[in-house]
Design brief:
5-stranded mixed sheet, alpha+beta, 4-stranded mixed sheet
Length: about 450
């Protein structure tokens, strides 16, 4: 009779079975030589690599070295590997349907080496618990109640989890809520959170604040009185703004004088010991021609810079300043729409400011530019500004005064304004702004 045989390494013996095409030769191991060669043999090894999708943000890679015998054992393997507690459904990519996911009903449906699976947790409805059931549970003995008996944790969130819409003010407060209230300067302020002046109390300062509000309601405001009281109440105002992080509308209601150009400059000086407008325009003029040279060099690949440069039909310094500031986001590859928005006089203030968290409005009537406004948290907080450079200066001043972070979409634009043009905190710059400042100081491009 014809047989075949091979050597089983892990058992240290030979296995013999019927074979219709070979002769059986039984030899001792020491007799194996060139005349009785031992044919090559393989020990079959089962390996399978699995890509398991639990959710959009949770995709895991696992492998198995042993072939599961049943679908239930495969489920048990996945439950153990993935650390799951609830029941679930396994889906696989079915080639018959263009690799769309279908429920796995048999292990034969899985590919041999690699497979992408999706695990969907079954929703188990919670049974309502009345007061009586709670009382009964609390009185039951330790042996009759355990975590396994009442699995209240580990249940998945609904997918998708629908987040309700809130009003704009509530959304802002929710965004600020998770942030840690750091009591330290973020923009290199020299007087970030001052102490209450000697001889003053918080109650006295609060009375002065109320007096400022009353004075601002008068037809003829005593600006000297307002200026003195604003300086006196600086510590109270900073404490509220830094520690409470109120909405801009709330600050404006309590400190209306802070939203005037003179008091914005005065507050900026108190915070930084720097004259806002004079320093800003001086830094702008210092690099004016150099900026224009760099803009011209880039205008062939940034079309908007070319369009802005075409507005310079004369040697007006004011126009050059505006072009430099409007072109800065383009040059730094940031989103210019987050800085400047055009609005028509036919629109209401609410329509104009809608969607603008931090920015400037250009108010125009047909083709004529009338003025500019500063917008914070979808509200116009300062209007009637005569030109764009003044609007930018007032916006920066308010961001300092209200302790508001620069918008992420314009982080480099505002960093250049603060650290290069205003020269505040310039010793620590990002790599992009540091490189720009070096180019501004070079004599050639």
């Amino acid at each position: 009779m014809r047989w075949k045989s091979w050597y089983l390494e892990h058992l240290r013996c030979y296995e013999v079975c019927r074979n219709h095409s070979a002769k059986l030769l039984v030899v001792q191991p020491e007799e194996l030589n060139d005349y009785f060669p031992l044919s090559a043999y393989m020990i079959p090894v089962y390996k399978m690599l699995l890509r398991v999708i639990l959710s959009k943000d949770d995709i895991r890679k696992i492998h198995t070295d042993s072939e599961p015998e049943t679908l239930d054992s495969f489920h048990s393997f996945l439950k153990c590997k993935l650390g799951l507690h609830d029941d679930f459904v396994v889906q696989f990519q079915d080639p018959d349907f263009g690799n769309e996911f279908c429920n796995l009903t048999s292990l034969s449906e899985l590919p041999k080496e690699k497979a992408t699976l999706k695990v969907i947790l079954k929703q188990t409805p919670e049974s309502p618990r009345t007061d009586s059931t709670l009382d009964t549970a609390s009185l039951s003995s330790p042996s009759s109640s355990s975590l396994e008996d009442t699995p209240t944790c580990g249940r998945p969130w609904p997918d998708p989890f629908v987040i309700p819409k809130f009003s704009y003010d509530v959304e802002l407060k929710l965004k600020r809520g998770p942030k840690q209230k750091l009591k330290k300067a973020k923009k290199a302020e020299v007087s970030f959170l001052p102490d209450i002046p000697e001889g003053k109390t918080q109650n006295v300062l609060e009375e002065e604040r109320a007096a400022i509000v009353a004075e601002m309601k008068k037809k003829k405001v005593d600006w000297k009185k307002v200026t003195d009281m604003m300086a006196s109440t600086f510590s109270l105002r900073r404490k509220e703004i830094v520690e409470q992080q109120p909405l801009v509308a709330e600050v404006k209601a309590k400190w209306p004088a802070l939203f005037t150009d003179k008091q914005i400059e005065a507050e900026f000086a108190r915070l930084t010991s720097t004259d806002l407008w004079d320093t800003f325009v001086s830094g702008l003029d210092q690099y004016l021609e150099r900026f224009l040279q760099m803009y011209k060099a880039k205008s062939h690949c940034i079309q908007t810079l070319s369009s802005l440069l075409s507005l310079l039909d004369d040697n007006s310094v004011q126009k050059k300043r505006a072009v430099i500031l409007r072109g800065l986001p383009h040059f730094l590859r940031e989103d210019p729409s987050k800085l400047l928005k055009t609005a028509e006089t036919t629109e209401s203030e609410e329509q104009m400011a809608k969607g603008v968290n931090i920015g400037i409005l250009l108010i125009q009537e047909e083709e004529d530019v009338l003025d500019f406004s500063v917008v914070l948290e979808e509200q116009i907080v300062l209007n009637g500004i005569r030109d764009f450079p003044h609007a930018v200066a007032m916006l920066v001043g308010l961001l300092f005064a209200l302790n508001i972070d620069y918008p992420k979409e314009l982080r480099y634009t505002f960093e250049v304004i603060q650290k290069v043009l205003l020269n505040i905190g310039g010793e620590q710059c990002s790599a992009r702004v540091h490189g720009l400042r070096n180019r501004l100081l070079c004599k050639t491009l």
